[in-house]
Structures are given as C-alpha cells and as structure tokens.
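FAQ: What does the model actually see?

It sees only this:
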Amino acid sequence: MTGPLIGAIDQGTTSSRFIVFDRQGRIVSVAQKEHRQIYPRPGWVEHDAAEIWTNTEAVIAEALSKAGLKPADLAAVGITNQRETTVVWDRNTGEPVHHALVWQDTRVDGMARAYAADGGRDRFRGKTGLPLASYFSGLKLKWLLDNAPGLRARAARGELAFGTIDSWILWKLTGAHLTDVTNASRTQLMDLKTLDWDDGMLGAFDIPRSVLPRIASSSEVYAQAKGVLEGVKVAGILGDQQAALVGQACFSPGAVKNTYGTGCFMLMHTGGEICQSKAGLLTTVAYRFGKAEPCYALEGSVAIAGALVQWLRDNLGMIKSAPEVEALARTVEDNGDVYIVPAFSGLYAPYWRDDARGIIAGLTRYARSGHFARAALEAVAYQTCDVAYAMEADSGIAITELKADGGMVENQLLMQFQADMLGAPVVRPEVAETTALGAAYAAGLAVGLWSGTDDLAANWAAHARWTPAMAPERRDALYASWKKAVERSYGWAGYDRAC
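And it is asked to produce this:
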C-alpha cells in the first residue's frame, strides 16, 4: 500500500466501525460490528461501554488485517461518535460503573421539566445553545450520580471519570481524559463563547468538575495509542454529525447537510457567529481546527428516521429487511392519505414535545401495507422539512441545495420525495461514509496530511442528484396534512408542556 493513510474510529448508536482512508478520501479498508441495545424499561436505552470497546478493538484489528496493514502504516487516527451518550467509569480500573445512558434515553424527562418550571425550557439556551430536554448529557450524568448507588460519593473522592463515547474510546486507547469542543457542546455544561465548562451550569446540575474531561480542539495530536493501535497518533475528534458536516466539505456559512440514519440530523454552517435559535433548533459548535477560531452551526435533530423502517420490520413484520421498504412503498401511487408521526420518544426539533407519542392518522379501509411503507418514508422527509424551514427562519438563508448522507440515501423514492417536498436539489456525495471521513480529515489536518479545508473540499464529488418535480400546490397540501397529524400526537403522555 503506497501513500499516506488515515484511520477513523466511527462509534455509532448501533455499531462500531474502523475505516482506513487514503489521501483522496477513498476507502482502503473497513470493518464493522454491532453491539446490543439494552431496554431496561419503556423509554430507557442503554449500551454496555465495555462491549463497545471490545468491538472497537476487534474492528480495528480486522480492518488492518484485511488490507495487510500495520498500525505504523497510519499517519494518525480520528474518532467520531454517537453524541450525548453518557459513560461513567472507574479511574483506577478503567471499567464502566453503570451501563451508558444513550442519547435516545428519556429517563430524565421529569428532571428537565422540573428545571424548566423555573425559567422555562430555554432557561440555559443563551449560554449553552440548548433547550432543556432529555437528549443532552448533563442531566444524564446528574441522574447517574443521584441514582446509581454510591456514585456521587465516589465522584466526590475523585474516583470516577465521565465522558461521552469519544472520551471513553480515547481513554481506553491512550489513557488520556479529554473531549473535543463539538462533543462538549452537547452536554449542556459548556459555555459556547468560552469553550470551557461553565461553573453556573455545573452548579445548577450539581456536577463536580473533577469528573469532567479536558476540552480540546477537534484537530490536534492528543496522545499516542497503545495496544491495537500501538504508537499511532490520535489526532482528531468530532461528534458524528459535526464529522459528517466536515466530511461533506460544508465549510462556508449557509452550507447544509442532512444525515439519514437511525435519526435525522441537519446542520447548517453559520461561520464564527453563534446564531441563537428562535425556531426550535440547537446552536452547536461545528468544529475547531487546532488554534483557529471555532465555527458554529444550527442543528435540527429528529429522533426517529431509519428507526421507523426498523419498526416496520421488527415490530410489525411488514418487511424482512430494511431495503425492502422501497419496493413495498412503490406498490402504491401515493400515501393513501396515511401519515405516520414517529414520536416514539417524543418529538425533537423543532417541536421539543416530550408529551408527544407516535400516531398513525388518516386510516381508511383502503389503506394497506404499501401505504404504511410509503408513509414511513415520507415521515422522514416531512420531519426534515420541519427542520429545514426552521433553519431558514433562524438564519435568514434559503436552502438551495441539501447534501445528504447516511444509510437511507440508498432509497431513491425517499430522496426524490425529499427534493420534491424541500423544493431544492438533494445531492449524495461520491464517498457515502462522510462521518468517518470527517474524523479522518480532522486527524489528517493535525498531522499535516492536508494543508487546509481547500484540500478537503477538492476531494468532494457528487455521486447522485435529485431535483424537485412536484407541483407546489401538491407539496403544500401534503405538508399541511402532515402538520395536522403532528398536532394530533401532542399530549399523549399526559402532562402539559406549556412551560
């Protein structure tokens, strides 16, 4: 193998992967392994962090072996990760003290409502860019310290370390305890301006500073790896959605990408400006490369996208594999006026309604399985439009093109319907693994493999493009019915979110 190579650990919600890229951003080798999803109670979602680490070691070894590579063949390694998922481990043994609380976990809903009762849901938005919600790591960490036996006392004695999955993987790789600005910005504990842990937030949530990692940039040499990557520089960390933004070469204000995975995550680059949302979006750090000034983004997070197709497969048995959903949806000409609102754990952006629950609306005797399949795919596009319209309202920038990535971009029907509903072209890149690629880019920048973002942008190329073909009147009618269905989902959980 000739030419410099970069590795990327891509630790996601359902699996861990290791991908080796060359300087042109092309995949040289890849390995992947799924991990368990643990559901102790309704709304609770956990992962075994020890299992995730074991799988990470396995996929690194497998990917290197497949290509006949050794750790020394890699110029550096980057990490990208499922964000907000919360891990606490013993500093001495290096073992988790509780299952990780996954970003989808809703056990702190009541805690979020209690904080919102004094100052409203946006009480901390000005400092952190985030509303009070079960989504973020800070309240998950508080729950663990308050509810897992002995953890708060152990934290006070300095025995415990907290981190999102990036910090956990880095600790196991190198022994270093740090995170980057993108992941830190998802804890609701970091000040967006200072890029440091905020004493006021730590006090409000009763979080001891001693458990927290150091906050670093997204691209710098953090430490050298041990074990399976012996001697390799670990030099980049980006939360998965920010990594996809980088992998899609969205380096200019107004550039937008959407990742269609378990959920949907749309980010708009806003440059050096902290754009506080008034339309239900999140303000987050897009990236910070080395000592350069940080760049920020607006983000809209949708909890259920590809997971809705999995639900049709696993819970209803309508399909045997996820790719079959497109063929089933094509057995009908339209949705038959059937709408699925997948508020399985409430609604995220731009609604932030944790009292909402999933509904199927518009049923008649005419409806059959094809309509359900089509309604599921259309729900992904409608939710994306909800976020896109909010993004345009907040930024004052019209979305003229949407860069799309993630597993669902293989679905031609969905991508065309997305372009139709958005009224703008949807573009898929040549390299679909944009999340891992973004982490590789961050690491490569830190060790000089690429000189700057212009080099990265030169690697990007379009693989497919979908252009709008639907009449505006039809688009408006469909979206109006979707909004009506969304309103029907409110209040099912039985408490008032008016605060």
